[in-house]
Design goal:
This protein is an alpha/beta fold and about 350 residues long. It has helices at about 10-20, 40-50, 55-60, 75-85, 100-115, 130-140, 175-190, 260, 295-300, 300-310, 320-335, and strands spanning about 1-5, 30-35, 50, 65-70, 90-95, 120, 145-150, 195-205, 215-220, 225-230, 240-245, 250-255, 270-275, 280-285, 340. The protein folds into two domains: about 1-115, NAD(P)-binding Rossmann-like Domain (Rossmann fold); about 125-290 and about 325-340, Dihydrodipicolinate Reductase, domain 2 (2-Layer Sandwich), CATH 3.30.360.10. Helices cover about 35% and strands about 20% of the residues.
Length: about 350
């Protein structure tokens, strides 16, 4: 299957292309790329053996392409998805869905009107440890869940080059919290659905030119369950990433984000374990965390290929992407107003 790349601003698409080019059994052939930045487009083409196209419309006119990966700057997502859906291409969309609810609703309307295959590219939904957590929750091993805390951090703001990147340019992106805390927010949504209320606080602690580099969001669910997302984008290292407290037990996961995976304190220590009250023992997971964040992102290539070939459902539907965006935007509303936002 030949596919096109609509924008290569999100670096994740490079990792997908590496895997697809390396593993011919996946039968995904990245073929042509368009990007608004000609220099970036040419670099992508040279690195991955792609043709270039001067316009997105020109790429979408090609009959030899069955699908596209939309990995442009976030502000371009709605226009590109609408065009790709009208052209009848299957769509893989990089996170987050859009900058505004209107963007998200345009994307959802286009996908529903054309019925093209569509998935969001959330790597946390295919991470082996996260899948195991979801299984344990669904099977009732931990009992009714009382509380979950997810730490999702990066150290990218410590890189001087990041200050001039599109990620912190308001023309193309909201800021780093919307861009990357969205991963952990979707993770909570994937496990538990829409919260009843959202409370959040964001601050700019590292450098004023890169706003909202730290944030904490709190989601309330029925029966008193609380879910917390805690993010720092100036974190050089870490260890614990998930804690789940349940009626019957507790789960602890380490090394689930980039700083902790890349700088393990003890490379031989188990990454995830849970304690079950009835058995009165800790159980060490047979599934280990990826040894680096790149390995975690590369884990998306195979499930995305399976989706594009029609052998598995979407990793996240267009409705899932829209709901995750609603929760992200509720975090901003709560931060701005200082009030808890009721989700309807």
């Amino acid at each position: 299957m030949k596919i096109g790349i609509l924008g290569c601003a999100h670096a994740h698409v490079k990792i997908y292309c590496t895997q697809w080019n390396r593993d011919i059994s996946l039968d995904i052939q990245p073929t042509v790329v368009w990007d608004r930045d000609t220099e970036r487009m040419v670099q992508m083409a040279e690195q991955y053996g792609l043709q270039t196209c001067e316009t997105a419309a020109g790429l979408l006119e090609r009959d030899d392409l069955d699908a596209v990966v939309v990995a442009s700057e976030t502000s371009l997502h709605a226009d590109l998805v609408e065009a790709a859906a009208t052209a009848g291409k299957a769509i893989v969309l990089q996170k987050p869905m859009g900058l505004t609810l209107a963007d998200g609703e345009r994307i959802a309307a286009a996908v529903k009107a054309t019925q093209v295959p569509f998935t969001m590219a959330w790597q946390m939904r295919v991470d082996p440890e996260n899948l195991k957590m979801r299984e344990l929750i669904a099977d009732g091993v931990l009992g009714r869940i009382y509380q979950i805390r997810r730490r999702h951090c990066l150290g990218m703001l410590l890189n001087p080059a990041f200050e001039s990147s599109w990620h912190v340019d308001p023309e193309y992106n909201r800021d780093i919290f919307a861009d990357d805390a969205a991963h952990a927010i979707d993770f909570i949504y994937w496990l538990f659905g829409m919260p009843q209320t959202v409370t959040a606080r964001m601050t700019t602690a590292h450098k004023a030119t890169m706003p909202n580099d730290h944030g904490v969001a709190l989601f309330e669910y029925p029966h008193g369950m609380l879910a917390e997302v805690s993010s720092s984008f100036a974190a050089i290292a870490g260890e614990n990433t998930t804690e789940i407290v349940g009626e019957k037990g507790v789960l602890v996961q380490n090394y689930g984000d980039a700083p902790s995976a890349d700088k393990r304190f003890d490379p031989n220590a188990p990454s995830m374990k849970w304690y079950v009250r009835e058995a009165d023992e800790w159980i060490v997971s047979e599934v280990d965390a990826p040894k680096a964040q790149g390995e975690r992102i590369a884990g998306l290539a195979s499930p995305l290929a399976e989706f594009l070939h029609g052998r598995r459902p979407p990793l996240a539907t267009v409705e899932d992407g829209l709901n995750a965006l609603r929760i992200v935007l509720a975090c901003y509303e709560a931060n701005q107003t200082g009030r808890r936002v009721v989700m309807t």
